[in-house]
């Protein structure tokens, strides 16, 4: 919903305070009540941070979430937390985002969602249709973390560290896009870079200046996507998530903003579990 673990914690804290002030005996359906509270708090938070996102220095990326390998078994949730999808969700208004996430990701009915956001079921259906059409027109397909994608990542890292231009070009799709997030605090490309030649040139330039004898690069899984992380002197320096489709790299998402990497070592399985029936 929010694209930020920090913002999510703030919403959960506020929701818990509201819940703790209520007599549980007066709540007939606790799950429905809690979903409603958290959803409305999320909507309020999205509206409040809109101006902050617009003033962000450079390109904004969601906070990286180090996901467990088993996430790849859940195709819907896997795609919903990807960098590509989170960027698409950023283009929705708060109501569209809430309806899309609750319905298409978590499977709530239009009636349940209507009760959560305070709108009629007819209105929610219209919002859902509009949001789904918007997302489907902009979503980018990618392959989840697997042995095949890890091999591509390994070849990419080898090509960049050895300066093998042709080997790198062979791995990139013609319309590949590279997006960096430095938050204005560290060096990073301020705007997306598009095209095989342009991305290769940028990546090789960064590798020449950032990879040293003390750098350790290791494979990881972030946001359900194959990724690499660089550590210098034991400190996390950058994260690189790969969007791979049909054996080619179609997207590169580079996180360098230190404010977003402070919790990047924690693994989140993101297991939805069984969703029990909910009555509004």
Characterize the largest beta sheet: strand count, sense, and whether it forms a barrel.
Answer: 6 strands, mixed
Tell me the domain tally: 2
CATH architecture of the largest domain: Roll
At the first level of CATH, the class of the largest domain is Alpha Beta
Number of helices: 11
List keywords for this structure.
280 residues, alpha/beta, Nuclear Transport Factor 2, Chain: A, two-stranded parallel ribbon, 8 strands
In words, what does this structure look like?
This protein is α/β, with parallel strands linked by helices and 280 residues long. Helices cover 48% and strands 18% of the residues. The chain contains eleven helices and eight strands. Helix 6 packs across helix 7 and helix 8 packs antiparallel against helix 9. The chain has two domains: 110 residues, no CATH class; 115 residues, Roll (Nuclear Transport Factor 2, Chain: A), CATH 3.10.450.50. Strand 6 and strand 7 form a beta hairpin. 33% of the residues are buried. The C terminus is likely disordered. This is RNA polymerase sigma factor SigJ. It comes from Streptomyces aureoversilis.
């Amino acid at each position: 919903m929010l694209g930020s673990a920090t913002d999510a914690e703030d919403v959960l804290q506020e929701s818990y305070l509201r819940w703790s002030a209520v007599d549980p005996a007066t709540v007939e359906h606790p799950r429905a009540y809690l979903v409603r509270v958290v959803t409305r708090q999320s909507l309020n938070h999205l509206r409040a941070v809109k101006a902050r996102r617009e003033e962000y220095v450079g390109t904004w990326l969601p906070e990286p979430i180090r996901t467990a390998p088993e996430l790849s078994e859940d195709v819907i949730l896997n795609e919903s937390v990807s960098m590509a999808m989170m960027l698409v969700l950023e283009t929705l208004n708060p109501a569209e985002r809430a309806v899309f996430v609750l319905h298409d990701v978590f499977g709530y009915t239009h009636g349940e969602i209507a009760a959560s956001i305070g709108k009629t079921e007819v209105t929610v259906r219209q919002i859902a249709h509009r949001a789904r059409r918007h997302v489907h027109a902009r979503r980018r397909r990618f392959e989840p973390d697997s042995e095949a994608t890890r091999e591509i990542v390994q070849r990419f890292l080898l090509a960049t560290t050895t300066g093998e231009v042709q080997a790198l070009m062979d791995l990139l799709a013609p319309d590949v896009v590279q997006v960096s997030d430095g938050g204005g605090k560290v060096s990073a490309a301020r705007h997306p870079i598009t095209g095989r030649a342009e991305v290769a040139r940028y990546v090789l330039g960064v590798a020449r200046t950032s990879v040293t004898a003390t750098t350790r690069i290791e494979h990881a899984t972030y946001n359900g996507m194959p990724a690499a992380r660089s550590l210098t002197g034991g400190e996390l320096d950058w994260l690189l998530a790969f969007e791979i489709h049909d054996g080619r790299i179609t997207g590169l998402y580079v996180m360098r903003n230190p404010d977003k990497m402070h919790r990047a070592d924690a693994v989140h399985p993101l297991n939805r579990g069984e969703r029990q029936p909910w009555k509004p």
